[in-house]
Amino acid sequence: MRLFALMALLLSLGACSDSRSPPRPETPTAAATASAQPQSADHELGRRVYNFRCYFCHGYSGNAETLASTYLSPRPLDFTKLAPEEMDRERMLNSITHGLPGTAMKGFEGILQPDEIAAVTDFVRHEFMASKARNTNYHTAAAGWANHERYAAAFPFATGEITLDTPAEQLTPQQRAGRRLFMSTCVSCHDRAKVDNEGVPWDSRALSYPRMGFQPGDWPPKQVDGISSATPYHLHDKVPKIAGLTALEKKGERLYQQNCAFCHAADGTGRNWIGTFLEPHPRDLTAPEFMRGMTSERLAHVIREGLPGTSMPAWKSVLGTAETQAIIAYISRAFHPVAADPAPASPAASATP
């Protein structure tokens, strides 16, 4: 889940580099939560800039309680823990304009106008540092959250009042229903909320790759364990069992599985772990639409010289001519027939009558 959330984070951080300006209304919009003094047009401009540019890391209420902040080091400032006299206004203006080296805070010079930078600075100082106000309530009817109270059973898990990994036997039936509601409706934005056991930040055990010491190109091939068959990749790392291979084809099998299977897969499909993530994908050596018309000469040329613009390297300094021909013989037998090179036309046949 955190991996998907990280993808969403990378996409959403684009708001920090977008050259567009936030909408600037001719008249101030009403804040969802009023501050301690009447709101001026500049204050509302600051609110709109903040809600458009800053909330993702610093939070709608300036407290930095966001998913993005959990991935950033150092963490974004929690403005609610600061009083205006604890941070000079000029320092804030400079940070917003030029950024803070060594942090995720980038400079907005050229993205925001000077009056927008001043407005958002003053908004933060008044709204969060001085008034400790809530700013904009996200879950409003205007934002598409009509009757948000119907999700009340899930609120304790969103706010962290109840940890998400609390044992089920310690929850009431209503709380268990609230957790199910949170997991089905709220978790995509609130991530996993608060938990008692943080667990490891990243599990290095590859769940969708074979275990038991298997490596692509193993020869002789080892037993492949796809972890309870949960992965589609391990199926393509099994070497085809072909009876009656000639000596040349057996040599080609060994060379192919040691050198070519890393990308093209042991079964020639290119649908193994590595091949799936290469772009463009390695050629599927079993597919008629790709292999029909393939000749030994053409395939040998590709193996020798590689394919520009792809991950297919040139093997001419690694494989000799005889070894290349052995690989082609194996491909032709195991995956798809490779046409023999056309015989050169005889002088008599090419002569003009």
Structure keywords:
353 residues, mainly alpha, Cytochrome Bc1 Complex, Chain D, domain 2, 3 domains, elongated, disordered C terminus
Please identify, by name, the CATH architecture of the largest domain.
Orthogonal Bundle
Order of helices and strands: HHHHHHHHHHHHHH
Count of DSSP strands = 0
**Which structural category fits the helices and strands?**
mainly alpha
What is the arithmetic mean of pLDDT?
82
The major sheet is characterized as:
none
Domains (count): 3
Number of distinct helices: 14
CATH class of the largest domain: Mainly Alpha
The CATH H-level homologous superfamily of the largest domain: Cytochrome c-like domain
Could you characterize the architecture of this molecule?
Helix content is 39%, strand content 0%. It has 353 residues and is mostly helical. The protein has 3 domains: 2-130, Orthogonal Bundle (Cytochrome Bc1 Complex, Chain D, domain 2), CATH 1.10.760.10; 149-190, no CATH class; 234-334, Cytochrome c-like domain (Cytochrome Bc1 Complex, Chain D, domain 2). The longest helix has 18 residues, at 173-190. It is elongated and about 85 Å long. The model is unreliable at 1-15, 17-21, 23-38 and 349-353 (pLDDT under 50).
